[in-house]
Every structure is written in structure tokens, then in C-alpha cells.
Amino acid sequence: MSHADAIERLGEHPFAAFAVYWTCGPLFPISMFVLGLVMAKMRAAPLPAGIMISLGAVVFPLSRITREASIAHLADLFLLVPFLYLGLRSMFGSRGLPGPLGDRDAVGS
Questions:
Q1: What 3-state class would DSSP assign to 16?
Q2: Are 77 and 60 in contact (CB under 8 A)?
Q3: With 0-12 CB in 10 A as exposed, 13-18 as middle and 19+ as buried, what is 32?
Q4: What is the mean predicted confidence (pLDDT) over 66-91?
């Protein structure tokens, strides 16, 4: 389906289009930005990870609006790298890194 066809079909459902694109659409980058700030402030993640999540949230809408592949790849990296790090840290233990399981036993708390 071409872009023009998709836009034309979207016009057939104005309430759904409004709900998805204008209401729910901005919530993803806003929530990622806040998540990055809160994780860094609460020290649930290292400061660079929180900053990268927040930067990814800022770059994400720019990449989708401009449809530039290089900006999209940058936004994806800004979001992928900290979440990959946090996921691997969660799976294999923190090994002395600050975080939710860094100072206590996972079973005993």
C-alpha cells in the first residue's frame, strides 16, 4: 500500500486517526524522556544510561518526522544501547554496579 493510499484510508476513520497519531503518538517519546530522567535521578540505572534514554526520546520524533535514515539509526541506537545494557545487567547480575540489585540479595529482600 502506498503512502497516499494509507493517508486516504486513514481519512475514513477520523476518530481512530486522531486517537492514535495526536493523542497516543506523543506519549512514547514523552514517557521515554521521563523514564530516562527518573532512572538517572533515582540511581536505578547509571547516569549515562538515563541520559541516553532521554536523548533517544528527543531524537526519536525528529527521526520519524524528517524520515532521515541516519537520524532514525541514531535514535534507535540511543534507545537500544542503554536498554541492552540494563537488560544484560539484569540477566547476569550487576557485579558491583549501582542499581536495584547492587546492594542486596535478590531473594532475601
A1: helix
A2: no
A3: buried
A4: 90
Residue 105 above 50 pLDDT?
A: no
Q: Dihedrals φ, ψ of 53, to 5°?
A: -65, -45
Q: What does pTM read for this prediction?
A: 0.69
Name residue, grid cell 557485579.
Answer: 95
The stretch 26-41 carries a mean pLDDT of 93
- Give the three-class secondary structure for 94: coil
d(CA 53, CA 10): 31
**Which amino acid, one-letter code, is at 96?**
G
Alpha helices by DSSP H, listed for the chain, are 3-10, 14-17, 27-41, 47-66, 69-92
Report the alpha-carbon distance of residue 75 to residue 60 in Å, rounded: 5
Give residue 67's identity as a one-letter amino acid code. Answer: R
d(CA 12, CA 14): 6
